[in-house]
Amino acid sequence: MSQKPVIEKVENINTNTKFIGLQTLHWRDQEGKQRKWENAYRTTRSEGGVDAVSIAAVLKYKNSTKLSDVILVEQYRPPVDSNVIEFPAGLIDKGESAVQAAIRELREETGYQGDSIRVIDESPVVANDPGMSNANMKSVTIVVDDIDENAPPPLQELDDGEHIVRHLVPLKDLHKKILEFSAEGKIVDARLSHLGIGLDLAQNASTLF
């Protein structure tokens, strides 16, 4: 008879690191067999149990026929030794909600802020890479209204050592642009890639299925 898997012991591995720790999980599987699993975890998890937030932010232009853009960021990520194209994102600070962190990170990484921001969705907690880590996050969807397409972009509020480049990509062309980024040798974050694939499937569903 199959039983529910259970973690029997968590063994922390001393790494003396600031943001990420390592554990060995001792667990029993559905057949009652004892097993081990190596696991990375965030040492900075907030009181609410959520590590980070990712922001899908869409710009809507005023008095214009220009279609909506999605805001992407590009930055060098040492673990993959490459520039990565991704959504604005960041860790949730102590005392912050996911929405508060999303608004702050959007302001810092892209410069967009103020009364024109509308939060239209906050996801449940989702896993980042459950085969390797217990790291989790929430996705927050934001619309930034009344953008003047002729105005200069707002100033970013980057921390020391941050080198983040903004990209405004037409939402309808997201999948195509993602392929172009990849062809340039840049790595695309999986969450962004999945959105691009989903939008492309939705746009072409009548001919694909």
UniProtKB/TrEMBL annotation:
<dbReference type="GO" id="GO:0047631">
    <property type="term" value="F:ADP-ribose diphosphatase activity"/>
</dbReference>
<dbReference type="GO" id="GO:0006753">
    <property type="term" value="P:nucleoside phosphate metabolic process"/>
</dbReference>
<protein>
    <recommendedName>
        <fullName>Nudix hydrolase domain-containing protein</fullName>
    </recommendedName>
</protein>
<dbReference type="InterPro" id="IPR020084">
    <property type="entry name" value="NUDIX_hydrolase_CS"/>
</dbReference>
<dbReference type="GO" id="GO:0005634">
    <property type="term" value="C:nucleus"/>
</dbReference>
<dbReference type="Pfam" id="PF00293">
    <property type="entry name" value="NUDIX"/>
</dbReference>
<keyword id="KW-0378">Hydrolase</keyword>
<dbReference type="InterPro" id="IPR000086">
    <property type="entry name" value="NUDIX_hydrolase_dom"/>
</dbReference>
<dbReference type="InterPro" id="IPR015797">
    <property type="entry name" value="NUDIX_hydrolase-like_dom_sf"/>
</dbReference>
<feature type="domain" description="Nudix hydrolase">
    <location>
        <begin position="48"/>
        <end position="195"/>
    </location>
</feature>
<dbReference type="GO" id="GO:0019693">
    <property type="term" value="P:ribose phosphate metabolic process"/>
</dbReference>
